[in-house]
Amino acid sequence: MPHSTSRSAPVSLWRDANFLRLxxxxxxxxxxxxxTLMALPLTAVKLLDASATEMGVLVACELLPFVTLGLxxxxxxxxxxxxxxxxxxxFVAAAGLALVPLGYELGFLSMAVLYGxxxxxxxxxxxxxxxxQVMVTLLxxxxxxxxxxxxxxxxxxxxxxxxxxLAALLIGWIGAPLAVIVDAVSxxxxxxxxxxxxxxxxxxxxxxxxxxAQVREGLWLVWxxxxxxxxxxxxxxxILMGDAFRGLYVLHAARNLMLDDAQVGLLxxxxxLGGLAGAPLAHWAERRWGMRNALVAGVALGGIGYLMYAxxxxxxxxxxxxxxxxxxxxxxxxxxxxxxxLSLRLAVTPDHMLGRMVxxxxxxxxxxxxxxxxxxGRAADVAGLPPVFTGLGLxxxxxxxxxxxxxxxxxxxx
Length: 414
Description:
- The chain contains 17 helices and no strands.
- It is an all-alpha fold.
- It has one domain (14-198, 210-406): Growth Hormone, Chain: A (Up-down Bundle).
């Protein structure tokens, strides 16, 4: 069975050199991504004059790799070195992101280019990111998954707190397209750090069945594991709504609330602070309520955040702060949800199926996303953004109630 020397390490994960490398790699890539999360939408909205529908298409392109490449990628992850895959796809992400500043400087930047960049970078997450999730389990063991994921979430949130200020500075200095360079560099640094992790992985047994049969095994695992099967509907809706919101909230802030780049940076900073607050909350809630109930609480809190974001209007005193507080609440709920979701699904899966479980769950939960995000973008063009955000919030609250009633109360393996 794959294992790491960190299983016999001192109690504190902060004294585990391997985990610290992963923590720092995660923080650096998160810092770069925080810049891109502001720079890329502003490039689309202000430089390329994108509509809500086009923003929905951009998000759909970012989801496509999970539903087209994810299932065979799971077989690859189970049979290959997770560390090497994580390193490789960090470098691929850097190359993809470099197309944005390159396209701007050479004059070929367009929405079509952004669609392609979104697809390439998400492909690296579909494969390399999935491999990294499995690697966390191998590094720390199942019993410390919530603790490890909470600490990784802290690194992400701290980076996202700093990221908007850095993004605003860079965008004001060199422009939104060129600011994406920071993200490309961060992925290179993350790849180098992960390459130095000492992770002893036992060679996978030689496959005796076809890739298609192994893919079916991953999907069958999801179906026959009660917790995974029950999570599919909750997670699919959460992803669809969250990704649609990610594609639309900057558009709403810039065009409807009339916020400037610095104020958009404030929104992102407050949102990141919510994620930072959600990480210790997730660990506390898991110990007090269990992973299942903590997940449900996160979904409900996210729904309240959607409703709060729909309320502010241009001209309000403190409109940027009101919208930022809404993002704070949404991201706190999202972090509470995602930490417990990631830990719960890994806890019920055998080691030899971890890669296929991750990619199978991503496939079935992201499958509705591309069409859904385009449809919500179109709905926003027709009905307006605030009604769409209100609908997301109400749906999220109903979903939390359904999850509380229907999710299994015992997390057992198939």
